[in-house]
Amino acid sequence: MNSSKHTELANHAWSVADLLRGDYKQSDYGKVILPFTVLRRLECVLEPTRQKVAEEVARFEGQDMDTDHFLRRASGHSFYNKSDLTLKKIAADPQNAAQLLQIYVAGFSDNAREVLDKYEFTQQIKKLAGADLLYKVIGKFTDLDLHPENVSNHNMGYIFEELIRRFAEQSNETAGEHFTPREVIQLMVNLLIAPDGDALSLPGVIRTVMDPACGTGGMLSAAEEHIKAYNDDATVEVYGQELNPESWAICRSDLMIKGQDPENIAYGNSFSDDGHKRERFDYLLANPPFGVEWKKVKEAVEYEHQHLGEAGRFAAGLPRINDGSLLFLQHMISKMKPVDVKGRGGSRIAIVFNGSPLFTGAAGSGESEIRRWILENDWLEAIVALPDQLFYNTGISTYFWILTNRKSADHKGKVVLLDARDQFQKMRKSLGDKRKELGKQHIADVTRLYEEAIGAAADPDHPFHGKVKVFENEAFGYQRITVERPLKLRFEVTEETLAALAAAKPVQKLADADAFVGAVRTLLGSSWATKSEALIALKDAVVGVGLLWPTGAPFAKAVRDTVGVRDPEGEVQLVKGQPEPDAELRDYENVPLGEDLEAYLKREVHPHVPDAWIDHSKTKIGYEIPFTRHFYVYEPPRPLAEIDAELKALEAEIQALLGEVTK
What we know:
- By secondary structure, the chain is of the alpha+beta class.
- It contains 30 helices and 21 strands.
- The protein has a nine-stranded mixed beta sheet with strand order 3-2-1-4-5-7-6-8-11, sandwiched between helices.
- The relative contact order is 0.07.
């Protein structure tokens, strides 16, 4: 079937929009057209075995047993319909169309009916009937020939995806949630599958693909097509999970229409209700929502993190509550196939992120620990920076993260950073926030550069040498050190220090607090270079008026902290014979992983502050991937003479224009 036939059939289905105009918002057309397209396709697929299913229904009538297995076998598919109704019969009885359609839908097997339920099909039936449109819509679809002998599963997939695309474009406000641009998916799948071309071309090859945030199933469809392009005889089994009921229904419909098993698409939240527990897949890919909080599943995720440890998915760490992106990645990593001793098995992962997961979170934070876990296990193969304004609902910069537990020998211990931010063409017409797209040549160039990345980075003469950099895993690690400096004080009694002393809680608790402060006031204007000198003078003043000098560590600290004044030339304060760190002078430094910390201190810090030291008990290991920093190219400012000449030229142009106006 050629593309014009696909378009013709899609146009026929979408022509129902002419009937809906006025009673439905434009963005809601898909809520009618998509489920009716599914219904019509299911009817056409089941038509050859309708009689056989009817015979089975009659055979088991009145018997208290589960007939699902027998009816599936009779239909020859994973679904069936027990009713003797058809859309044509229902359209011929306009007065009873709503009731008959409800009966017809109820006759489907549970898995097919569940899909229609998620489309809220019953409500659409009522709404169409109320507007006196139901029998007209049904009539339109009875004329749509979707029989398998005329429209194969593969071609039906194209038609349904075209309808999904139109629905997404009509619903611009939610397009990004349901629809990832096709060309972005194509590049992502290219990079995911790139190293496996030879293996995929083998006869009888079977591959499983999983998307834990599958939306309407676009990525799964593209992955299937791409693998089939290598080998048309390959068996591709797709799996997914989706939280949005409408998107789930569309994806599941797509699988039913293509002849895949719809049971492979689970409904629910991947974090709290994993629909594919203990399953492992060859390829995993996802475009999870950016910056979406996971507060609703916080309890379940934290329980798994705290109690299941390595047996769970989130042992490495938990990101901040307002962005669950790295939870999706940990979930996907948990579903990689193990690699055996001969290097067979394993999986590959591709996921779309914004910039946040690259660097958000300081050393020791959940995000940093997740990055550390990934890099120390040598799973991160590459990060690819994409142009901005590629997606429908956001113009921000995005990145592909490519991971695998079966790196090739030349990639082991390394991470490729590939800058594809300039690989785009401007769209003639924007779609939401999408103003750029990847052309076929851009996709081919980036794919080829990805395959040649190691060589391109090492070859200064390669035309794209500046667009690829290769780093050892450890290059992204750092040691977060705490640099301390000694607390240095001089001691004095001034109005300010006296007020602070009087306000200190240990002083206020004294029975004769006012007399104590009064005694110290007699020393107003006095100062001492050392703490011992100050304490002797203070004690003499207090005892001199007949008071006892209070004891206890809290009181001694209060006196020291209030009468002591920071002074770079003051006395170094000691605790158990060691310099006491000054919290106000405390500083933090990030030192490359593996570098000797004391050597760093001597080289970088001591020339400026010779008395500084590192508190090794507070040192933390962190990981971040500063992508843009590695590709930053300094552009010197233009010479002043050039700028001045340009300003003078503009002034002359303005004067000339003003002269024309005043003539």
